[in-house]
Amino acid sequence: MPIDFRNTNTVWASVLAETLQRLGLTTAVICPGSRSAPLTIAFAQNKKIETIPILDERSASFFALGTAKKSYLPTALICTSGTAAANFYPAIIEARESRIPLLIFTADRPPELRECHAGQAIDQVKIYGNYPNWQAELAMPSASRGMLDYLRQTIVYAWERSIFPTPGPVHLNIPFRDPLVPVSDIAVEALETQFNPEHFFAGLEPIFAGESSTPPSPPLLRGGEEITMQQWQKCSKGIIIAGVSQPQFAEKYCSAIAQVSKSLNWPVLAEGLSPVRNYAQLNPHLISTYDLILRNRELADKLTPEIAIQIGDLPTSKELRNWLDKIQPKRYIIDPSHHNFDPLHGKTIHLRTSVENLATILTLVPPLIKGGLGGDRAPATPAVSPQISPLNKDESTQVPPLNKSKSTQVPPLNKGGLGGVLTSPSNEYLQLWRNTEIQVRQTIDQKISAINNIIEPKVSWLLSQILPLGTPIFIANSMPVRDVEFFWKPNNLEIKPFVNRGANGIDGTLSTSLGVAHRNQSSIMLTGDLTLLHDTNGFLIKNKFVGHLTIILINNNGGGIFEMLPVAKFDPPFEEFFATPQHINFAQLCATYGVEHEIIDDWEQFKQKLSFLQNSGIRVLELQTDRCADAKWRQDNLSKFAKGLS
Description:
The chain is α/β, with parallel strands linked by helices. The protein has a six-stranded parallel β-sheet, with helices on both faces. β15 (523-528), α19 and β16 form a beta-alpha-beta unit. α1 (8-23) packs parallel to α6 and α3 packs across α18. The longest helix is centred in the last third of the chain and has 22 residues, at 428-449. The radius of gyration is 27 Å and the shape is globular.
């Protein structure tokens, strides 16, 4: 029997859990505590929901965030009353900013035990400010049929609001009176004979955030919007910016961007934190080195677009943002959510639709002929794709196949670019982007492939070529996300990047990574030392974690990102208050938690360790680097990769 009629609290909590299970909830993360006992017992007794106990509330909330990122379903997060709820706050902020569905249930004291120093009682009503999609305090538990109907429908609404119209967190504060444990109440037990669960839950079906969850798009084919599409077709100097993204259906998402690119003959500036670079064969106009290209001011001027289509968030690149801010192209932002994705406050128009819808719509707009509106589009004039020679005798553009059934070879550069598709660019602007990309990519590859010592930029460059097919990788904030944007090489490995780029914080990174990796394909986490240290309590999840996570730890004994900022020139106080070295022996730290640890001394060892990922457990591969030397290498080289090109 899914409903527990031992007392009012058990009825209330079990109806809540059963309703969520029928809606599609698969995972609940529970922190220990007394006031939340009715919820804990109800979820633990529901055999169709995986319940995971985690000691630290902050770690628990980020783990829940990670599981929701991976599944695209809400994860339930439960805690007791008091400051326990406050520890959820950073993850709730991230969930809101990165549009991840979470259901937060905070147990609370009843009204008569608030504002009277009853202990472990704080003001939890709307404790998370404006960050939840929706928030409410439930009524006091009651076993009456009318109140159970109210509870069921409130939970249905909470589930829906965590998904529609934009995914995000929903908070329900739930007061409980004693008894908090399932002692029997004869009056409540008698109600069981009057309760028909099939009738009570009739019509309750799973609600998923799949492809059908995209809100109706604006009438893009009406009036001025159709003309807008035709103006795009008329424009020969346009760009598509594929920003940070973690789409549920990555290949379909990348295919849609490629379709828009091919329809318009515009290049795609693809952020390394999106899957686009990992489906390179789909897109013949893929540009991965835009940050480095735009450091050449002469080139940046020549590459000024008239129109930019921005898909989702802007990329991390400060060079790109400054360039867009300076040139102020007419910019269209494509995303189905209600968020504002323009921190530059430019000449932007938000089209509240998905890129998949946009690709379909573009096929319906009457094509142009000779720059006019309507009619058949004139065929593109064929152009010869640039030919380049191999990088050197030792450097191949192929990635070794993982198995005999599916090859992961990256097509040669001389067949229409990294995508391996023979293309016919129809305008000089596109060709300039493509030629520059090929030359800068070749320069990067030659430079980095020749580096034998352990250096931070080579880590992300190598990872983009050696990871097993479809590997999920969580990329920590600060320097790792920037090195990925600078150096992540386009490939056909279908790697799945995950990030916390909503609020861009370092908190909860290990726990989020474990949430992504839990019951998933063997996964990778790329992080610096300070970020890992900030969340070492995440290792406490180890005994409940199902799956494998390899942590690639770049240990430069401090905050490498600050070495790249002007404040680095002011020491003191730079080293102590900004770089903040911690001098931690990670082998000893890992031993404390029973986590495998190994120091990586050379690149061949690194490649060998990642050629095959284990099926279970957590391991740390530590690369010890020189923070100052690596920062100087970036400062010396980033502006030189596109130097002399025009």
